[in-house]
Amino acid sequence: MQALSIFYLLIAIQGFLILWDEFFFHNRRGLPNWERVGHPIDTVSVILPFTYLSFVTYVGTTPLFLVFLMAFSCLLISKDEWVHTELSTSGENWLHSLLFMLHPLVFVFAWILWKERGPIFAFRLQLVLLCSFFTYQIIYWFRFASKAPEKKIKINNELYHDLGNRWYSAKDDPVALLRAEGKTKNPWVAQTIQKHFLHRDPSEIGILDVGCGAGFLTNYLAKKKFVVHGIDLSENSLAVAHQFDETKRVTYLTGD
User: pLDDT 10s digit of each residue in the chain, 256 long?
Assistant: First the structure.
């Protein structure tokens, strides 16, 4: 039967790609918790229609329930792809695209076989393979596999190094937004601090500004007579901050 041969070929190719994805890509990058849960759910979405095909005989019409299960599974397996775009390599994303094309084809030829009253053995073989894979996913990823390391976002502080005096003059750089924001923020910060300390003399209040940049806030607070310390990773930014400190009373330090 031609449909049976195509069905076996499709599940063989699909199985190979799934194993490649699982044992190469997944093990190489590790799976975060949401994927450890999501992948077995994907497998269950395939188990359900094949359970139906394995134990219910075609009676002349295709139930909407079966159509829904197959369509839902095709949609469900693609649920993570906007995350995979960032998380996975181009090779893994390409492999996923092949699986997305094969997935509905497997269902279509399974339906053709079922409608033609083909051998139930084909469906039950696929069901056994799926249940075995589901069992592996649960046991391996929740019991034996180490958790994927958290993806660290590296903050690029280099973009601040070459601004120089443009911190205080540029109108064609996002730093101009910070400068404009300070006109509203800085007075509010000073008033809030003063109110919190019950109107004590500013010279008695010490302030640490962490990530002070070129001193938009620190220099403003120094003018208001507060005792101010500013720390930042960018030594170039601190040099600009010190240059524009009219009071010359702010202590600037390189620090994390």
Answer: 688 999 999 999 999 999 999 999 998 888 888 889 999 999 999 999 999 999 999 989 999 999 999 999 999 999 888 778 878 889 999 999 999 999 999 999 999 999 999 899 999 999 999 999 999 999 999 988 876 555 556 667 677 778 888 899 988 888 899 899 999 999 999 999 999 998 789 999 999 999 999 999 999 999 999 999 999 988 999 999 999 999 999 999 999 8
pTM over 0.90: no
In the chain, alpha helices (H): 2-20, 27-29, 33-55, 64-76, 81-87, 90-115, 120-139, 158-161, 166-169, 175-196, 216-223, 235-243
CA 251-253-255 angle, 5° bins: 145
**Beta partners for 207?**
228
Are 247 and 209 in contact by the 8 Å Cβ rule? The answer is no
DSSP 8-state code for residue 25: I
Q: Which long-range contacts (CB under 8 A, 24 or more apart) does 143-150 make?
A: 145/27, 145/30, 145/31, 145/36, 146/30, 147/30, 147/32, 147/33, 148/29, 148/30, 148/31, 148/32, 149/30
Residue 146's Cβ-side half-sphere holds a number of Cα atoms within 13 Å equal to: 5
Q: How far apart are CA 173 and CA 95, in angstroms?
A: 41
